[in-house]
Amino acid sequence: MKISIITAVYKAESFLRRCVDSIIAQTYLDWELILVDDGSPDKSGNICDEYAAKDSRIKVIHKVNGGVSSARQMGLEFCTGDYIVHADSDDWLSPIMLELLSSHAKETDADVILFDFYRVTNGKELLIKQQPAALENIQVLKDIIGGRLYASCWSKLVKRSTVLKYGASFPQGINLGEDKCFLASLMKNSVSVSYLGEALYYYDATINEESLVRRITKESMESGFAMVSYLEGLLDSDFERPISEIKINLKIRAIKSGLFSGMQIWNLYREAYPLVLMDIVKNKSLTKKNIQIILSMVGLYWIAKFI
């Protein structure tokens, strides 16, 4: 059983070797690595070619920069494995990751396998469990959309034939929340889900969060709104609440970012108010303090102080 690993590469020259070396060090040997150089202006593309010249299991695609979603989609189209997992260029894999995942896949024949990971911050590892409340695809997807489970393709092994069957894909132009979109396009269908209670992946939160701060731009916020629109068009009313929560968080983040001004800010405030108020009305579990915090975050101080 071959496993395809897809890695989108952009400005990764300082940490790409760590990622690729962790894949080469796998105890399981039947794999292929698709490195998609997304028009990186640094030496990342050269590093990719260097590894491909040494190991026939490593394939490199050089493309014009189009964003992470287009890079991952191209990787999907070129991979040939029975199962697929993604690996971010700034993270790394446990040496037994593919071995344990392949064994679990053979035992369960599941379409989607969730597994645990370590969140690494300044060298300190924190175990992040990804065990779903129920192994039912719609409930798992709700937990992913709602943020109770990580919406990351690197913590999920997926069957390639199932991806092809349902035409699951990364929508082009959406580079914030693209993993949510891909997983939604796959898991809204009748797919089987399994869970492997082993931490097999190392997520470098230090590098990723620094990158996230740099990525807070007007374009990234607009990409986030496009992600919400995509999910609204793809999923039924059962997902209204988790999508609404994403929308609220995005609008609050956009307001606080300082990237919008004038009529744009007014429109964001006008759109955020009813969403926040509706969420408060529907959410019976919110405490008085949490309601005040939420209202204050979007500028409704005059209401918050009377609650």
From TrEMBL:
Source organism of the structure: Bacteroides uniformis
One matching Pfam family: Glycos_transf_2
GO molecular function per UniProt: hexosyltransferase activity
Keywords carried by this UniProt record: Glycosyltransferase, Transferase
InterPro entries xref list: Glyco_trans_2-like, Nucleotide-diphossugar_trans
Top-level taxon: Bacteria
Transmembrane segments: none
Protein's name according to its UniProt entry: Glycosyltransferase family 2 protein
Entries under Gene3D superfamilies matching the protein: Spore Coat Polysaccharide Biosynthesis Protein SpsA, Chain A
Domain Glycosyltransferase 2-like, residue spans: 4-130
